[in-house]
């Protein structure tokens, strides 16, 4: 199985509410940051690890979110991986 197929399998295992949060939170943090490069895959992994018990949807999907983010990091790099993830989520999720 290719890495792209593995990433899609992980993404398919995460509910739409959590994917929407991942897209909106990542996009929002990038817009707010003085340097968009400050918001990257490792930042999200640290954020989720610190708040896994604060947000039920993160806890519920944690076993799929971590491999998904690490897969994007491995395939595309720390900063570019988040950019690619945001693009893929925009294409995957229905627009409001």
Count of extended strands: 0
Shape: globular
Estimate the strand proportion: under 5%
List segments where confidence is low: pLDDT < 50 over at least 5 consecutive residues: none
**How far is the first residue's CA from the last residue's CA?**
33 Å
Listing every helix as H and every strand as E from the N terminus to the C terminus, the arrangement reads HHHHH
| H/I helix tally | 5
Cα gyration radius (Å)? 12 Å
Structure class? mainly alpha
Major sheet description: none
**What fraction, in percent, of the residue positions are helical?**
over 70%
Would you tell me the overall average pLDDT?
Answer: 91
Would you write up a description of this structure?
The mean pLDDT is 91. The protein is globular. Helices cover 77% and strands 0% of the residues. α3 (41-51) runs antiparallel to α4 (56-76) and α4 packs across α5. The protein has helices at residues 3-12, 16-32, 41-51, 56-76, 78-92. It is an all-alpha fold. It is built from five helices and no strands.
């Amino acid at each position: 199985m290719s890495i792209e197929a593995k990433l899609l399998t992980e993404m398919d295992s995460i509910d739409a509410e959590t994917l929407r949060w991942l897209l909106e939170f990542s996009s929002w943090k990038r817009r707010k940051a003085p340097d968009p490069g400050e918001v990257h895959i490792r930042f999200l992994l640290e954020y989720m690890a610190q708040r896994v018990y604060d947000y039920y949807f993160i806890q519920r999907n944690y076993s799929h979110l971590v491999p998904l983010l690490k897969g994007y990091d491995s395939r595309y790099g720390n900063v570019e991986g988040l950019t690619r993830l945001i693009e893929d989520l925009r294409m995957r999720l229905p627009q409001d």
